[in-house]
Amino acid sequence: MHDRGLAFDLSRLVGRRGALGLFGGAVLVGAVGCSTNEEPPATTGQPAAGQEEIPDETAGPYPGDGSNGPNALSQSGVVREDIRSSFGSGSGVAEGVPLVLELNVVNAAGAAVYLWHCDREGRYSMYSEGVTEENYLRGVQEAGADGRVRFTTIFPGAYAGRWPHIHFEVYASLAEATAASDSVKTTQLAFPAEVCAEVYTTSGYEQSAANLQGSSLEDDNVFSDGYSAQLATLTGDATNGYTATLDVRV
């Protein structure tokens, strides 16, 4: 007797259609079992690097927006690009390494930015001893259709307990900024360590150089929890000045 194989035996047991069904099932199972297709990697829902929203930060004790004493936003002349000199009744001019700051407020055409920072001695106009009658290093700019604002200023000093930084508030419109309405975002930007070290070798920044030695971004009470969305990109040098840029997602 000749062995006609498993297919013949199955055909006798379940008929031709049943046999084909069984073999078809076996082939399908084999194909699935041997598949090398991999599932696509799961997405985390986190923004790509450099695209995260800038975090909310404290305005600090010297905002000059009416929330803690004096209000520069209500004064005529606060809307300006060059913030190195005082305006109105003030006559002082802040000296230091030139800095052009360009902020790109993403998806916020028509927004306005109020910006302020300390001078090279670490003093805040309107608050610190010796400059209470000045309002330099404070100003407002309205974003264009591309969301960009530009300020001409100086590189800020470093005072004890803080990493070199600039404060700013984003408002929905210029009218809301100059009315000191509620801001959309209050935050701060930081500067790279190597640039700070270079600037602080120049005349007038001697105390800043000493203060920088005892601080770091990682230990700063604002930036220690992360600063990737707040660290400005700088080009230039301490002799001719710098341009700082930062994308601001609110």
UniProtKB/TrEMBL annotation:
Gene3D superfamilies: Aromatic compound dioxygenase. It comes from the Bacteria. InterPro entries: Intradiol_dOase_C, Intradiol_dOase_core. Coiled coil: none annotated. Residues 95-162 form the Intradiol ring-cleavage dioxygenases domain. Residues 38-74 are annotated as: Disordered. GO terms for molecular function: ferric iron binding; oxidoreductase activity, acting on single donors with incorporation of molecular oxygen, incorporation of two atoms of oxygen. This is Intradiol ring-cleavage dioxygenases domain-containing protein. It comes from Acrocarpospora corrugata. The lineage of its organism: Bacteria, Bacillati, Actinomycetota, Actinomycetes, Streptosporangiales.
